[in-house]
Amino acid sequence: MYNVNNITKSTVNKQKYYFYLRIVYKILIFILLYSKILIMKRLEKYKHLKVKTLVKDEIMDNLFSSNVTNVEISGIRKFFNKVSKVEGAVSLTLGQPDFPVPKNIKNAMIQAINVNKTEYTANAGIMELRHEISKLLRGMDINYLVDEITVTVGGSEALLCIFAAFLNAGDKVLIPTPTYPAYESCVKIFGAEIVNYNLNSDFTINFDSLNKLINEEKPKLLVLSHPSNPTGAILSRFERDKLFEILKEKDIYIISDEMYSSLCYEKYYSLAQIDEIRNRVILVGGFSKMFSMTGLRVGYVCASKYITDNIMKVHQYNVSCATSISQWGACEGLKYSMGDVTIMKTEFEKRKEYVYIRLREMGMDTTLPRGAFYIFPSIKKFSMSSEEFCTRLLHEAKVAIVPGSAFGTGGEGYIRISYSYSLEVLKEGLDRMEKWLKTLDIS
Ligand code: PLP
């Protein structure tokens, strides 16, 4: 039996329900439209800030220095950026130690802030730090007085200041290949000319070729870089003495980049140890790798006073001084964190042995590194360019390393693996690489 009253009641309730639903719906639509109008109004306010990206044809000729246009972005960075786009990739690309900054250094920097040591320092850097650098070098048989040391914003600023102080357009600079790419880029920036000298197959200096180039090209500067990024080669006693023999009568200045001096696994040799030639050696060093403080940016350049005075002019107008807080940190590190440096070195040495053995077991033609934290195996037998090898390894095996071509023409046919990663990460990366290599046809 139908109850007419009940049916009417339920119909009325339903109508009421739909009525309210429609009202809520309309309110929501109103809120949405109103918010949109508000957002559009806000955007309108910032419209003038919109940047129009110019295409190449719209950029006026001669706008940028042709020297700078000639410089390419670092191949190391280019490859590192590729890695982030491949999910699950193991990166063995960077020259960044995986240790935290030693505690003493951190505390010294905090203390420096708390006691307001945040003003400009002397252009050359704080006296206490230069004194400690002088002491550190003396321990390596290298003699530079406090007045001959300039603290810089990392080794990079030191290099740029040196090249700026020395180079006129057209001057020639002898640069090893393969090597750290910044030297060639700096030389290009100042419109000078790069003359590459080749290395032997074990990455030692080829003296015949070097001697010939010095005599024929009459370069103003010679770059030495030991321990080497990317090869891990160090300067042997024989090489140091032979270099002295060749260079002592020549009118040539030597930039000796010793950024990795704290990571040398054998006895340390440097041309700066020979007093008779020290007046023509400009030594670059720093704490980025030594104290694992790459982002804190402290390096140094050592040279005779007459050279330092000119480097200082560039440094002064470039940055005034290195960051005060980081300088205090580095100073404390030299006094109290040398134990941490030894611990890091021991760990890197362990990793070096592991990576070297693994690569040899895979059948890679590899020279044992003697310093820094890189290994540079040959890939010549795979009949691929280093770029192709690394791109395929990244996409097919999800391991990122750097193509040797990023280190100059002499780097083609090689790859750079950084072992500044934990043993677990290295093992995973090398396992994947080994599996991938087995899929290649190398007949
Ligand atoms: N020299 C060499 C050989 C390097 O490998 C690097 C950095 O990787 C530098 C200089 C620059 O060092 P910094 O990070 O202190 O500027």
Task: Give a quick rundown of the structure.
With 443 residues, the protein is α/β, with parallel strands linked by helices. The protein has 14 helices and 12 strands. Helix 6 (154-166) crosses helix 10 (305-319).
SSE topology:
Layout: H1 4-45, H2 66-69, H3 75-83, E1 90-91, H4 103-114, H5 127-138, E2 149-152, H6 154-166, E3 172-177, H7 182-189, E4 193-198, H8 207-217, E5 221-225, H9 237-247, E6 253-257, E7 281-286, E8 299-302, H10 305-319, H11 324-336, H12 338-361, E9 374-375, H13 386-397, E10 399-400, E11 402-403, E12 415-418, H14 423-438
Parallel strand pairs: 1-10, 3-4, 3-5, 5-6, 6-7
Antiparallel strand pairs: 2-8, 7-8, 9-12, 11-12
The protein binds pyridoxal-5'-phosphate.
Instruction: Report Rg.
Output: 30 Å
Bound molecules: pyridoxal-5'-phosphate
**Could you tell me the mean pLDDT?**
93
Q: Can you give the helix content as a percent range?
A: 40-55%
Q: How many structural domains in the coordinates?
A: 2
List low-confidence stretches: none
CATH architecture of the largest domain: 3-Layer(aba) Sandwich
Query: What are the secondary-structure elements, in order, as H or E?
Result: HHHEHHEHEHEHEHEEEHHHEHEEEH
Main β-sheet, in a few words?
7 strands, mixed
The CATH superfamily of the largest domain is identified as Type I PLP-dependent aspartate aminotransferase-like (Major domain)
Question: Could you say which structural class the secondary elements and strand pairing correspond to?
Answer: alpha/beta
CATH class group of the largest domain? Alpha Beta
Total strand segments: 12
What distance lies between the first and last C-alpha atoms, to the nearest angstrom? 92 Å
